[in-house]
Amino acid sequence: MKVCSVNGFVLFFSLLSFKTYSQNNLDTLGILNIIKNAYEICENDPEKTIELGKKALDASLKKKYLKGEVSAYNVIGVGYDVSAKYDSSISYYFKGLKLSEKLSDNSLKASIYNNIGLTYWNLSEYKNAIKYYYKALSIFKNSKDLKGIAKTHNNLGLLYEDMLDSKSAIQQYKESISNYSQLNDTNGLSVAYLNLGTSYNSLNNFIESEYYYKKSFSLKKENDYYGKSIVLLNWAQVKNALFQTDTAIALIQQSINDKEKINDTNGLISAYNVMANTY
Questions:
Q1: Is the separation of the CB atoms in 118 and 85 below 8 Å?
Q2: Tens digit of pLDDT for each residue in 125-156?
Q3: pLDDT tens across 227-238, in order?
Q4: pTM, whole model, 2 decimals?
Q5: What are the C-alpha distances in Å from 65 to residues 156, 216, 279?
Q6: Which of 77, 148, 247, 270 has the most Cβ atoms closer than 10 angstroms to its Cβ?
């Protein structure tokens, strides 16, 4: 599980040309743009993320730009996390965390707490992961940041599910859903419903599982072929567990059709494996 994130969640930014980055003429906006670009490429090129993060850090130190320093330490930590260099990742996060105490805006501190939680999760140090997720959650609650609250509860749900504690995961997902509902965030709701369905499936509560898979699917946009294909494949496995084989096969085929539209090779392999196990 590797995630490039701010506030612990994947963010997508517009690509910026590397040629425009010169430490001699960077202003604060330029520094933040480097950091945004670093997040954009972190999954595919974490080494470049680290390089850009260090460029932003050097420029921030020259400008005495504290927010830039904190943000740079954070993105460098992300790069090391994706590279599975966890000790380096945590070291940079804590450097950023220490400096963040001087900022009036706690959002960066919450971001770092979330990322520390993710790194400890990758290390299977679950107690530490939970500890730092709750530190982030406390900041989001104090600032009444409903989206931050919703996303952090969702992360905690995923973590508890990874710990095979589906009952705790369900509690977290329901908290996430409550906050996404207040925001009318259909995408966030769809993801949380999918995760909730998966936890009920883990408990062999197939009726509840199917109910939430249906809710998740109903919120997917028509052209969200990737998202729809995932829900359909999970839903099919519930139907298979309920011995409704024909329906399961139909759902798998729908999933395959959607995956073919986006050339999702790995997803197609998974779908064909599920289909083979269904027959």
A1: no
A2: 999 999 999 999 999 999 999 999 999 999 99
A3: 999 999 999 999
A4: 0.84
A5: 33, 43, 61
A6: 77
Tokens 């998966």 correspond to what residue?
A: 198
Rounded CA gap, 97 and 119, in Å? 14
User: H or E element: which one contains 5?
Assistant: strand 5-6
Mean pLDDT on 98-111 = 92
Could you report the per-residue pLDDT of 243-259, keeping only the tens digit for each? Answer: 999 999 999 999 999 99
Strand partners, 10: 5
Residue 122 CB-density burial (10 A; 0-12 exposed, 13-18 middle, 19+ buried): middle
User: What is the pLDDT, as a whole number, of residue 5?
Assistant: 47
**Cα distances (Å, whole numbers) of residue 114 to 44, 66, 90, 217:** 21, 20, 12, 28
For residue 186, give both structure tokens. 């259909």
CB 66 within 8 A of CB 103: yes
The 10 Å CB-count burial string (b at 16+, else e) for 256-277 is bebbeeeebeebbeebeebbee
Instruction: Name residue 274's amino acid.
Output: V
Question: Distance between CA 16 and CA 34 in Å, rounded?
Answer: 8
pLDDT attached to residue 105: 82
Q: Provide the token pair at 119.
A: 């790194």
For residues 159 and 169, what is the distance between their CA atoms, to the nearest angstrom? Answer: 8
Q: What is the mean pLDDT of the chain?
A: 91
On the CB side of 122, CA atoms within 13 Å amount to 22
How many CB atoms lie under 10 A from the CB of residue 209?
Answer: 24
Of 196, 118, 123, the closest CA to residue 159 belongs to 118
User: Which tokens go with 257?
Assistant: 């059709």
